[in-house]
């Protein structure tokens, strides 16, 4: 058999009766109709959910700018002189919020920033806390708001709209449905369009619609060309959306843990023969200030958050810049002395890597490239920011 005959044989498929059919006919008579029906029904039945997810997601993406407008008087102050010590700012927040347990402090970073002191209270929902915003120059309370992590009520509202449509766990199924089928919609449409254009020798119209077309042909040309341009973004949105969904997101989290792709964290357990006395509530402000100073001495610049721990455990100070994953270091601090502890472990219990000389180095998480560092109360080679 010649090379050309072999090539023609390779291009043929077998039908149910055992006859060889050209590949083009197999595609036209078998697989293409299946893809076309799949693409059509996904568009009809899942399309509305995808549209809702897209619109609400676009609204959610604008919430940082909306928050700066809505909460301008809460989040910004006019600089006036030198800021008060952090301990005094925390004391002012405790006086304003006598009911609740202090769980986090975020000192002001820029001259016009406020200090955030967060409390956990029994009166708030399980996933919400209460944050007191303090003017670092006067110690006055600019506002007290329920928060979800660092999110203020406006962002929390848009987040609930995007994730659940305010329908609870049942509502989360809509976003999972949209994310699960979006990539199928994009891939099926892309396959149909590319094969049709290539088969007709119209490769140029893959990405540029034909201007001379009329009626349905013109509409399909724009639909296909726009689909090619948007397909990569749709697949990316589908993949990232699934990681946030209820069921697929849980499976992704389990996979990350199994592969040790989770973000390393500073060790909360203290070294052996180390005791940390219980910090009385009236001494919390001073202990928080010591932890903040230790973090700054170790090179943790920018936005930081201080998280007190239970008695006998080290406190954690972490960088909290969320715009880019470049400043995500964290340290473990003795709240009584301000000393930083030397060991850091990932969520799987593994110790961070060391350089050949035994000096501590950053540990990078494969999934999110977030470094974690623990150290003593002095800078060490290989761990500077």
What Rg, in angstroms, do the CA atoms define? 28 Å
**Structural class by sheet pairing and helices:** alpha+beta
Q: Outline, from the CA principal axes?
A: elongated
Strand order of the largest sheet: 3-4-5-6
- Share of residues in helices: 40-55%
The main pleated sheet reads as: 4 strands, antiparallel
Percent strand: 5-15%
Order of helices and strands: HEEHHHHEEEEHHHHEHEEEEEE
Low-confidence stretches: 1-12, 343-385
Number of strands: 13
Query: What's the helix count?
Result: 10
Distance separating the two termini: 67 Å
Mean pLDDT: 78
Quick description:
The protein is built from ten helices and 13 strands. It has 385 residues and is of the alpha+beta class. A four-stranded antiparallel beta sheet has the order 3-4-5-6. The protein has a three-stranded antiparallel beta sheet with strand order 8-9-10, covered by helices on one side.
Overview of the molecule:
- This protein starts with a helix and ends in a 13-residue tail after the last strand.
- Strands 3-4-5-6 form a 4-stranded antiparallel beta sheet. It has a 3-stranded antiparallel beta sheet with strand order 8-9-10, with helices on one face.
- Strand 1 and strand 2 form a beta hairpin.
- The longest helix is centred in the first third of the chain and has 39 residues, at 23-61.
- It is an alpha+beta fold.
- It has helices at residues 3-10, 23-61, 63-70, 72-75, 86-96, 153-164, 172-199, 215-244, 247-258, 284-297, and strands at residues 12-14, 20-22, 101-106, 115-120, 129-134, 141-147, 265-266, 304-307, 315-319, 330-333, 344-345, 363-364, 371-372.
